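Sync notes, pocket subgroup
Present: LS, DG
LS reminded everyone that the earlier model was apo-only. Rerun requested with FO1 included. Inputs:
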Amino acid sequence: MTQPIRRILALTGGVGGAKLALGLANTLNPGQVTFVVNTGDDFEHLGLRICPDIDTLLYTLSNEANPDTGWGRRNETWHCLEALGQLGGETWFRLGDRDLATHLIRTTALTAGASLTTVTQRLSERLGIQHPVLPMCDQNVATMIGSTAGEMAFQHYFVRERCAPNVTGFRFQGSEQATLSPALQELLTAPDLDGILICPSNPFLSVDPILAVPGMRAALKAARAPVVAISPIIQGAAIKGPTAKIMAELGLPQDALAVARHYGDLLDGFILDSHDASLLEDVRGSGLDAIATPTLMLTLQDKMNLAKVAVDFVNEITTSNTP
Ligand code: FO1
C-alpha cells in the first residue's frame, strides 16, 4: 500500500518547466510542493535585475502569465519600451510596463540588501502563490553559451540571437562561489521529502545551472527521496525552445534516452512520452525505473494529469525501495 506523498521538490526553469509546475500546484496541497528555480538566465538590463525563470513561474502560478508567449505578464502594454526605442535605448529584450514593476521592486530590495530568496518570497506572497518558490541560490550565476560565433551571455544567445548560433558548450559563471541557501538546505534534508522531480525543462540551459550549484547534486543524490526526470523531448523534438537543436549541435541523439543519459546516475526514474514508448527498454536497461505517458501539456487538465502521474510514479519508487 502506498502512503500519501508528503513533500515534493521540483526543479524547474523556462516555460516548459512552468507548465508542469502549474499542474503540480493544482494537484498538491499548499506546502506539499516547493519549486527550485534556475537563475542562470538572470542578468542586469537597463539597471534592473531581471530573473526571467523566477518570473515565468510566479506569473504562471498566479495566472498572470502572457498566454501567447509563456513569459511576461498577460494584458501587457509596451509604452515604456516604445519610449525607450524613441530615445535610442535598448529594446531587443522586451520588458512590458506591468512586468517592469516586478523588476523595480526586486532591484530596489536587492540593492537594499535583501536576498533573492527573500525577495522572491515577498513577490510570491503578493501574487497570492501558496507554494514556496526558491531561487537555486542567492549569488549571481550567469549561464554563458559557448558557440562557433564565440562565447555569449545567455539572453544574448536566447533572445537577441534567437538561439541561432551553433552551441559548443556551457559555463555557469559564478557558480563556484554559489552556496545552497538555508531554505534549500532545510528542504533537501527534510525527513518528509518524498520525491524530487526534474521538470521537462531544457536540461542544458535550465536544469544544469541548478545542478552546478556546489553541493546541489550531492544533496539531491543523498536525499532519501527518488529523483525522477520528465523528458522535454517528444519524438525527437522539443515542444518549445532549442533543446533538440542544442542536442544536435553537441553531437547527441535527439531523443528522450539521451536526456536520461545526460542526467546519468542522478536519476532513479524517468518519464517519457507515450509516443516514445519504444525507448522504455533502453532507459530501463540503464538501470532506471521508467514509464511512458502523455507529456504534451496544452491544457490545464494535461498539466494536472502529468503532475499526478509523476507524483504517483515517485510514490511507487519510494514504496518499492522501502524495506
Ligand atoms: N524571451 C524572448 O524570446 N524575447 C523577449 O523579448 C523576452 C523578454 C522577457 C522579459 C522578461 C522575462 O521575464 C522574460 C523574457 N523573455 C523573453 C523570456 C526569457 O528570455 C527566458 O529566459 C526564456 O524564456 C528562457 O527561459
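DG: Residues 13-15, 41, 50, 52-53, 55-56, 71-72, 93-95, 99, 155, 158-159 surround FO1 (CB under 6 Å).
LS: The CA atoms of residues 137 and 181 lie 6 Å apart.
Action: DG to write up.
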